[in-house]
Specification:
By secondary structure, this protein is of the alpha/beta class. It is built from 15 helices and 17 strands. A 10-stranded mixed beta sheet has the order 7-6-5-4-8-1-9-11-2-12, with helices on both faces. It has a 4-stranded antiparallel beta sheet with strand order 14-15-16-17, covered by helices on one side. Strands 10-3-13 form a 3-stranded mixed beta sheet. The protein starts with 5 loop residues before the first helix and ends in a 9-residue tail after the last helix.
């Protein structure tokens, strides 16, 4: 069982009561000594496989800095994101809503789109800023490229990175390609090649992107220290997302891996780990380490065929099987989290918004709907925060939808337009043994509950490609009448 500092436990209780009674964050601030609010560092990897960090069992990828945090903190067996793709998953983390509830269930269009997640949904950064936090976002955004969707418009005081869904890693290469296109008079240039920016102004990056983002995170920590202000930092590495590009020195660390993609992928993960170590060292140098909650996870499962390993989970990025949306995760907070625990119960990326707000003494915006919950009380008691509650994942395809719902040990899955199946994922993490014939009533109940959940989903506000939107309309999607059909035997 984990134990937390009594002061923090008291603070959490005060925050929970305040949130339920409408007490403002300003009123809460008067009850706390100056400097009591912890820093929050949330690190998000991109397409990282479940088995691609040492603390989750990787045998061929070395992640010593992450492993050290894991050993001194708590790791999670069943951490779920809200969607198996980058954009919708990030929208859920920032807004605390299932992406389907806000029309964000598809990745944004590629290059220079004018759509994005509306500021009507108050992002976690704005909530933390309202509570007195210095807020920063570093790295991949993928929530809107137009000015009205910029990170600075969503509560982030500082932004350094790129607005699209990915980026090339070597400045000397992407800068050359970008300048060539500009010289040709082109304006619609692939976002993977465009210059990085700092608060809306183009900058000339000189380091391998992962190292550059780590450098900027350190700079942000220094700024917060100088301000004597608690910080909330969202560090969104684009590694190990494609393109697979790694430094020679990092590749040399993995000569033992014969497969070229896997070797490059491993080197990219190693660069992320090196960056985490660099930031931790700076937190210690600035005297901020003890008072900083560090959370690390991935935005979705690893991409099979591009070097990732999701063992023992089935499938990968894009799937509603466990490998698509169950990710490695750790939390670290010296003196407040007992070292060396693994938390077996399911937790959601959707829980981060209300949990961060509670820990930071922030009031939720009036009328704000959240699909997760503050999980700190459950973490303190080492009990399931979502007992008897549903976890949903829904991925729309061409003319049909993949869907899954987990409640306690059971998971109902409809994948690749096949019949519904039922698994006991607490005992069968690889989803090999379909038990729907043994428990047809449980399957029908779970499918029916997910159907009810789906009825107030919003129509997509955008599609990744125009042809995707055309087929959506042509095939009268989302066709939930077909998705949630279950016969008397429990199958479709």
């Amino acid at each position: 069982m984990m134990r937390f500092n009594r002061k923090i436990s008291t603070l959490i209780s005060v925050v929970i009561v305040a949130m339920s009674t409408g007490v403002s964050s300003c009123a809460l601030a008067t009850e706390k000594a100056a400097g009591e609010q912890p820093n929050i560092l949330f690190i998000l990897a991109d397409d990282l496989g479940y088995n691609d960090v040492g603390f989750n069992g990787s045998k061929d990828i070395s992640t010593p800095n992450l492993d050290a945090l894991a050993k001194q903190g708590v790791t999670f067996d069943a951490a779920y994101v809200a969607h198996p793709f980058c954009g919708p998953s990030r929208a859920a983390i920032m807004t605390g809503r299932y992406p389907h509830k806000i029309g964000a269930q598809f990745n944004l269009p590629e290059d220079n789109s004018n759509v994005g997640v509306s500021a009507d949904e108050t992002f976690i950064a704005q909530t933390m800023k309202n509570a007195g936090y210095f807020t920063g976002a570093m790295g991949k955004w993928h929530l809107g490229e137009a000015p009205q969707y910029h990170p600075n418009k969503h509560g982030f005081d500082e932004f350094y990175g790129f607005l699209g869904g990915g980026h090339n890693y070597f400045p000397e290469e992407f800068e050359k390609a970008y300048n060539k296109r500009v010289a040709q008079g082109l304006t619609n240039i692939n976002m993977y090649l465009t210059p990085l920016e700092h608060n809306g102004k183009e900058v000339r990056e000189t380091e391998y992107i992962t190292d550059g983002l780590s450098r900027e995170a350190v700079t942000f920590v220094d700024k917060a220290t100088a301000k004597q202000q608690p910080f909330f930092l969202y560090l969104a590495y684009n590694a190990p997302h494609v393109p697979l590009q790694a430094k020679e020195d990092d590749l040399a660390q993995f000569r033992h891996i014969k497969d070229k993609k896997r070797r490059t992928y491993a080197a990219m993960v190693y660069a992320v780990d090196r960056g985490v170590g660099r930031i931790v060292s700076q937190l210690k140098a600035n005297g901020q380490y003890e008072n900083t909650l560090i959370v690390f996870m991935s935005d979705n499962g690893g991409k099979l065929g591009q070097g990732a390993n999701n063992y023992p989970l089935k499938e990968g990025k894009g799937s509603v099987q466990e490998g698509g949306f169950r990710t490695p995760m750790l939390m670290h907070w010296p003196k407040h989290i007992k070292a060396g625990n693994r938390f077996a119960h399911p937790v959601l990326a959707l829980d981060l918004y209300p949990t961060f707000a509670a820990i930071g003494g922030a009031s939720l915006p009036e009328g704000k709907i959240l699909d997760g919950k503050n999980i700190w009380p459950s973490l303190m008691a080492n009990v399931a925060p979502h007992e008897n509650e549903f976890i949903y994942v829904l991925r729309h395809r061409d003319g049909y939808s993949d869907a899954a719902a987990r409640r306690n040990q059971y998971k109902a899955v409809k994948n690749h337009n096949q019949n519904w199946k039922l698994f006991n994922v607490a005992q069968d993490i690889s989803e090999e043994n379909d038990i729907s014939a043994k428990h047809p009533a449980i399957l029908r109940d779970m499918v029916s509950s997910m159907e009810s959940w789906s009825w107030n989903n919003q129509q997509p506000k955008w599609f990744h490609r125009s042809d995707e939107g055309a087929r959506w309309r042509l095939k009268a999607m989302p066709r939930f009448d077909k998705t949630f059909q279950v016969d008397d035997h429990g199958t479709k």
